[in-house]
């Protein structure tokens, strides 16, 4: 990997960490609409018009379209934050759908790496109680058990 490519990845991770910190701060102060807008504008900034297309495809297809572990992880984290915001806003059905989608995207990101990184493990641990695992595909269920083990 070239140093320029590596620098771009590091910059993307740093920008996302900043955005997610701001989202958490907005959630804490009850400014949920602003947090939703920040998640949305960040997604559009990172993925452009592809963001809307990604939501129309299953997680596996979305991961193939994104191509890299870093991009899939970013998509998963944005989806997870949006689901948490939907939950806080009382839209339970939308939140549950978002949690499931985020979990599947995190599992796709894990497939793309040689190892499962700490942020992915943490996300899986946080999402697992929020998702009805029986609604996941068998391959996702098996992968989740391999990574996270029994509850």
Question: Mind explaining what this structure looks like?
Answer:
It is a single chain. The protein is mostly helical. The chain contains 8 helices and no strands. The chain has one domain. Helix content is 77%, strand content 0%. The model has no long low-confidence stretch (mean pLDDT 91).
With helices defined by DSSP (H or I, 4 residues minimum), what is the helix count?
Answer: 8
Largest sheet: none
Mean pLDDT: 91
The ordered H/E elements are HHHHHHHH
Assess the beta-strand content as a share of residues.
Answer: under 5%
Number of domains: 1
Radius of gyration: 15 Å
Helix residue percentage: over 70%
Structural class, from helix and strand content? mainly alpha
Note poorly predicted spans: none
Number of strands: 0
Distance between the termini: 37 Å
What is the general shape?
Answer: globular
Task: Produce the secondary structure layout.
Elements: H1 3-28, H2 32-47, H3 50-55, H4 59-66, H5 69-88, H6 92-111, H7 118-127, H8 138-148
What keywords describe this structure?
151 residues, mainly alpha, globular
